[in-house]
Amino acid sequence: MRSLALGRNPSLTLPDELGDLGELTALYLDEMQLAAVPQWIGRLAALRVLDLGHNGLSALPAGVERLQALEILYLSDNGFAEVPAQVRPLRALTYLGAADNRIAELPEWIGELDALIELRLYGNRLTGLPATIGALRRLRELHLRGNRIAALPDAVGDLQDLSHLELRDNALTAVPATLGRLQRLRVLDLRQNRLTALPDALGDLPALEKLDLRWNGFVDPPPFAERLRARDCVVLL
């Protein structure tokens, strides 16, 4: 057996024998009202996809850190107050979804997950990002809407592969000029913040297709807006 989908069965018992499925590569335990993850998950060494979304989890068990083949981890819509420490050794992760939790701070070690392509942390309680976020050089999508982020580190400009940056519904009063270094950025969503001005460097982003600035404090459009529109970038104010 390579894939096992048991989600949406809240009354289902998860026997220890499931930990003997040594060739299992995908396990779906979403929407099961789980308050704890069974310890046997740590024995599934071939696992590449693990979906624990939409449960009642606040921690992961010891042993999860042994899942060195894991590429996709869904933790969204649980009760996590922090990114579990067991995630730190999972260096094969390309997707981490921990949206709609209670995470107030990202750990400094987040930059060690350097295989990440997509990081979803919307709907949490973040007030900022660590500078180590800039080490995620393969990251293409960063979703942070619905947090409490008041400022971004300059290191965000080091995310050289980033194509989608979502910062809607935060508390930003400014963004760093280093965003102008994001040569592959296609979508920048800054809706519903507290912005009144932006660095002129954003007008030179060569790949930008959409810049959403609605529901901010702009009296006049940023000076570079027409420059972007002239090359068919959609600018929404």
Unreliably modeled segments: none
> Which term fits the overall shape?
elongated
Number of strands: 11
User: How is the main sheet built?
Assistant: 11 strands, parallel
For the largest beta sheet, what order do the strands appear in spatially?
1-2-3-4-5-6-7-8-9-10-11
**Computed Rg:** 20 Å
Separate helix tally: 1
Descriptive notes:
- This protein has 237 residues and is mostly beta strands.
- It is 3% helix and 14% strand.
- The protein is built from one helix and eleven strands.
- The chain has one helix at residues 225-230, and strands at 3-5, 26-28, 49-51, 72-74, 95-97, 118-120, 141-143, 164-166, 187-189, 210-212, 234-236.
- Helix 1 links the parallel strand 10 (210-212) and strand 11 (234-236).
- The longest helix has 6 residues, at 225-230.
- The model has no long low-confidence stretch (mean pLDDT 97).
